[in-house]
Amino acid sequence: MLGRILLTTLALLMAIPAGALALIGGVLLDPALRETFGRLGLAGLLAGLMDLSAGLPPDMAALMLAFLAQALALLVVLPPVLVALIGALFGLRSALWYGGACAGLTATLPWLARGATFPAGPAAVAEARLSALLFATGAASGLTYWLIAGRSTGARRPER
């Protein structure tokens, strides 16, 4: 039992950075997302520098960093942990379960957070690109977990 807990913890500690790297790589490869995140980072840096020059603590930059950390945790930590918990509970061993469920959950989280509204026009294209990136992020996390611990989850099946 202790070995199973350690293996699951190790797998999650590897799956979370794998998802984060996939997300960062996707943002860097997509020109529209790269520009958007660049503008957000520049705005946060500028707000922090303006606060510092005015003699105030850099509250805006700290709030932006806190928001980014929460969003990143929601996107790369919650899906693999939830999928691993359900997989262990039901003894699921399929790569399709870990990769697909984690990818689907990661891709739908922003949609659920907005209240399931669909954008129209050019925003729909940007939404589709972001969903594809988040799908790949979740798949990377889920498949990394499956490679380390998911194949041995649950009770052993009797050999024939």
Q: TL;DR?
A:
This protein has helices at residues 2-29, 31-53, 59-76, 78-90, 95-113, 122-148. The chain is mainly alpha-helical and 160 residues long.
Commentary on this structure:
- It is a single chain.
- With 160 residues, the chain is an all-alpha fold.
- The protein has one domain.
- The protein has helices at residues 2-29, 31-53, 59-76, 78-90, 95-113, 122-148.
- α2 runs antiparallel to α3 (59-76) and α5 (95-113) packs antiparallel against α6 (122-148).
- The chain is globular.
- The mean pLDDT is 81.
Helix and strand layout, with pairings?
Blueprint: H1 2-29, H2 31-53, H3 59-76, H4 78-90, H5 95-113, H6 122-148
Helix pairs in contact: 1-2, 1-6, 2-3, 4-5, 4-6, 5-6
- Which regions have little confidence, pLDDT < 50, spanning 5+ residues? none
Question: How much is the radius of gyration in Å?
Answer: 19 Å
* SSE class: mainly alpha
Q: What is the overall number of helices? A: 6
Mean pLDDT: 81
Q: What series of H and E elements makes up the topology?
A: HHHHHH
Shape: globular
Give the distance, in angstroms, between the N- and C-terminal Cα atoms.
25 Å
Helix content: over 70%
Percent of residues in β-strands? under 5%
Strand tally: 0
Largest sheet: number of strands, sense, barrel closure: none
Structurally, the number of domains stands at 1
